[in-house]
UniProtKB/TrEMBL annotation:
Primary localisation category: membrane
InterPro entries hit by this protein: Cell_div_FtsQ/DivIB_C (IPR005548), FtsQ (IPR026579), FtsQ_C_sf (IPR045335), POTRA (IPR034746), POTRA_FtsQ_type (IPR013685)
Keyword Iron-sulfur included in the entry's annotation: no
Organism listed in the record: Salinisphaera aquimarina
Domain POTRA: 35-104
Binding partners and assembly: Part of a complex composed of FtsB, FtsL and FtsQ.
Family: Belongs to the FtsQ/DivIB family. FtsQ subfamily.
HAMAP family to which the protein is assigned, alphabetical: FtsQ_subfam
Subcellular location, record wording: Cell inner membrane; Membrane
Keyword Cell inner membrane on entry: yes
PROSITE patterns with a match to the protein in the record: POTRA, PROKAR_LIPOPROTEIN
Protein name, per record: Cell division protein FtsQ
Function: Essential cell division protein. May link together the upstream cell division proteins, which are predominantly cytoplasmic, with the downstream cell division proteins, which are predominantly periplasmic. May control correct divisome assembly.
Transmembrane segments: none
Amino acid sequence: MKRADAKGLRDLLLGGLLLLGVAACTWQGIKPDGDNTGHLYISGESAHVSDARIAKVAAPYMKAAFFDVDIEALQAALAREPWLSDVDVARHWPDGIAVHVTEHTPVALWGKQAVLGANGRVFVPDAASRPHDLVELDGPATAGLKVYEQYRHLSELLNGQDVHLARLALDARGSWTATLTDGLELRLGRGELDERVQRFIDYALGDDQARTALATAGYVDLRYSDGFAVGGSRAADPKDQEKGNEQAA
């Protein structure tokens, strides 16, 4: 080997070793001191999941060194909190973890225990935090937005008649059942919901005698092509009872 070639090879090797040494020093220089990750930064708003609760969930993960914190596992653990709709976890230089949370906005009760969020997701909070002043909806868990949108649409049709929906349910066969705030059940079936509700408005609510007859009926079956059937019984609306008592007095 020529002397010039040998010298070039030696310089190349020395340069490589020097580069590795610099990289190692750089890594040691940026690695935070201490065994634990010292700070937890929490942002976002949540009325049902406190910062203390988030810190408690995060505590086991914060025992690891900065680069060893299992970000994905921590994010998954926080996402199991029912009221949290979105969770984002990231490292916060030089020795912290940043957690940003978004809470569900409840728009309806769902079934007997769950709640429907504005994003269409169904979640199950603890009984103490479950709202009580929302419309009651039900159906397949994946049909949340569909049922809610149908509820809003039917409500618009009925509200002009001083009639309001208290419940709306979609069963596994695709059949709809609505219940008014006075307890009257409307059996709507699987199709032509607008036409059937309009028929109820025109021929049941639009006629004083028919409306009076419905005061104690249990249900109206609107699944007929040219009419409806009335059946069952229920307790009279408390407001109507009060009016009757006042008139009697």
